[in-house]
Amino acid sequence: MAPPPQIIRVIDLETTGNAPPQHGVCEIGWQDVALGADGRWELYGEGGNRMVNPGRTIPPLTMAIHHIRDEDVADAPWWHDVARPVLDPWPRRVALAAHRASFEELFCTPALTRGADWICTYKCALRLWRDSPGFSNQFLRYYRMPAGLEHERGLPAHRAFPDAYVTAHHLRDMLNEASVEQLIEWSKLPGLLPRVRYGPDRGKEWHELEDEALETFAQDRDVDIRYTAQVELDRRHGRGPAERPPAKQPQLF
């Protein structure tokens, strides 16, 4: 019997807020993606979810998003008892993934993940699917209509397993366009935005802007805007390496 394949595990968290340790996890969901014998990435296994006692009350603001109540998690295990088995299915796990992974990384610390690399499907979507009008997990779901996504299995939105299940379809398609290494590299960088987000140039592609506008955006408070403007300035004036196209033959570590 062949051994189980190596996997990339997609993670989604529902929490009491976005600033640990003041806030805690109340649900974790996951869905694995694996490289098949035909060289194509596909969803693997059934995935799952675990409720978590966050150790504090859940504010109405976050209950209104995920609809998890205090009584739903009162008897659930604590985060440190749940996290490691889900986040570190050693030795099969190649990397972890999430949509806007910087949020999950706040709670899924290196001590819990054994220092895993992360793939951010949001940042990778900015690179691979630049024509998309939006880049949220659910927008990409309906804009791209990923093959094989079972509609009801991906509902309700803003719950841990359905969101992980939807994200896993985006990740599968990304891995069939670019290598694991490339997706991890992009995920470590700020987001490379396809279009200007605000102001008189809103909606324009960055190459359409004058240098003066780019210089202004390069001082923006938003790290993604600063980075994108600087990349365009460097490209325009030959000061940095050209953006590399995605590798078409994905390789596993």
Question: Would you kindly provide a written description of the structure presented here, covering whatever features stand out?
Answer:
A five-stranded mixed beta sheet has the order 3-2-1-4-5, sandwiched between helices. The radius of gyration is 19 Å and the shape is globular. It has helices spanning 60-66, 70-73, 79-87, 101-107, 110-113, 121-128, 137-144, 160-175, 180-188, 211-217, 223-237, and strands spanning 7-15, 25-35, 41-51, 93-98, 118-120. The protein is α/β, with parallel strands linked by helices and 253 residues long. Helix 6 packs parallel to helix 8 (160-175), helix 7 packs across helix 8 and helix 10 runs antiparallel to helix 11.
Features:
exonuclease, alpha/beta, 2 domains, 11 helices, globular
